[in-house]
Amino acid sequence: IVLVGLVVVAPLDVVQVVVLFLVGVVVFEMYVLIEVQVVVVLVVVVLV
Description:
Layout: H1 2-47
């Protein structure tokens, strides 16, 4: 019974992990882009 449950749940866990990983990557990329934009703005302000 436990093994059957694991077999059924495992694919769902894999999907959830993959989805969470992709979401994390997207959020991280957005955060990095925002940081880069802030740095660029600060550099421009300092130079000007």
